[in-house]
Amino acid sequence: MHISTNIRIWIAAALTLCIYSFLYKDNPFYKFAEHLFVGVSAGYLMVIEFANNIIPNLYTPLKTGFGALFSQGKFTGDLAAIVPGLLGILVLTRLLPKVGWMSRWALGFYFGAWQGLIITGYMQAQILAQIYGTFLTKGNPVFSLVLFSDAVHKFGWHNIIMAVSGPLMIVGVIATLTYFFFSTEHKGFVGGVAKIGIIFLMVGFGASFGYTVMARVSLLIGRIHFLLGDWLGFIS
């Protein structure tokens, strides 16, 4: 056993234990680590955004332009950079109660422009691509008699799964969409299809939840390995 003498590892271990102390109950150590994490993350993100966006997109073009204006009598920068700069200043007016209403102009412009720019890409990536992927895979129909023929004449689990997965996915998509179709009462045939959609939804939610649990367990294993290995030296 070789306990680490690195002060950074000791600090990381102490903060890790402070976070895990919440498993017992809420306590000042957990609140300190939580507030420290949020504060450091917010500060780090602000610095990154300032360095990657404000300086190259606002400060540098205006500095170059006004520098040329005073030295050569001609503005060579990008005046369009002033518009997002002013909108950003308007957002900050929320900190002043008397003029906080001005931030709504900037937010309204931002959300309107964002919706206009994103709608075409969203339609392509989230709707059209999903429809395409439901009925076609690698350019071939997911429902193919050739796949069923291979499943019969070349019997094997792989061929069976390939033959069944396509029709099953189509049925799942249609049944799930039927469940969210509220213009018709869910009775009779429509109600039966909607119940099948519920089954597909539960399978999907269960798979997502299982994946999330696996990811969190992986993080837990990493922290335990850090505490027992890098900090206390029990494992190599």
Task: Give a short synopsis of this structure.
The protein has 236 residues and is an all-alpha fold.
| Low-pLDDT windows of residues | none
Q: Report, as a whole number of angstroms, the end-to-end distance.
A: 9 Å
Largest sheet: 2 strands, antiparallel
Order of helices and strands: HHHHEEHHH
Provide the fold topology.
Blueprint: H1 7-20, H2 28-72, H3 82-92, H4 103-135, E1 136-137, E2 140-141, H5 145-153, H6 157-179, H7 188-231
Antiparallel strand pairs: 1-2
Helix pairs in contact: 1-2, 1-7, 3-4, 5-6, 6-7
Could you characterize the architecture of this molecule?
- The N and C termini lie close together (9 Å).
- The protein has helices at 7-20, 28-72, 82-92, 103-135, 145-153, 157-179, 188-231, and strands spanning 136-137, 140-141.
- The model has no long low-confidence stretch (mean pLDDT 87).
- It is extended and about 80 Å long.
- A two-stranded antiparallel sheet has the order 1-2.
- It is built from 7 helices and 2 strands.
